[in-house]
Amino acid sequence: MGTNDVNGVYIYDEGDEFSPVSEFENKGQRSISAAIGKLKDGIEALTGIKPSPWVNVTFASGWSQHPNTAQWGNVQYRTTAGAVELRGQIVPRAGYGVDETMFTLPVAARPEYTMQFPITNNSTAAAYAGIVIRADGRVQLSATGALNVNLGLVRFPQKGY
């Protein structure tokens, strides 16, 4: 009796009822198996671009996420298809300075070059609010008077893409 190959396609044996034409049948079966193998490789390649799970950031001293995580969620990052996405809302530490590091991204979630993004904040005192993401992974607030920092619009190319 025949058996299934690595791709799950039945390969006939001389003991099967198709034994007089088993080699002819197997040419077709091997062709189907090769096509299934290519399809499986393609599916595996596609799963590589699925977003990674969201990962909570580790804050620098004094920085924290907004306490209402039901509304704002946790401050997190993830990689997806060669990009890095950030989300959540940060509460600055008391007395923070301009371009102070809020948290640092791991090597796999860093940009190739320093990038700057405008962000929303709920302060009328800040004429400009933005974050700077450095190639070494430091995520810094570039504003004064910001009460909260919303990361909902931040997405950038991952180093190496």
Summarize this structure briefly.
The chain is of the alpha+beta class and 161 residues long. Helix content is 19%, strand content 29%. It folds into two domains: 3-47, no CATH class; 55-157, Sandwich (Immunoglobulin-like), CATH 2.60.40.
What do you see in this structure?
- The longest helix has 26 residues, at 22-47.
- Strands 3-5-6-13 form a four-stranded antiparallel sheet, with no helix packed on it. Strands 8-11-10-9 form a four-stranded antiparallel sheet, with no helix packed on it. Strands 4-7-12 form a three-stranded antiparallel sheet, with no helix packed on it.
- The mean pLDDT is 79.
- It is elongated and about 85 Å long.
- With 161 residues, it is α+β, with helices and mostly antiparallel strands.
- The two termini are 50 Å apart.
- The protein has helices spanning 22-47, 69-72; strands at residues 3-4, 10-11, 55-56, 64-65, 76-80, 83-87, 89-91, 100-104, 115-118, 129-133, 138-143, 149-150, 155-157.
- The protein folds into two domains: 3-47, no CATH class; 55-157, Immunoglobulin-like (Sandwich).
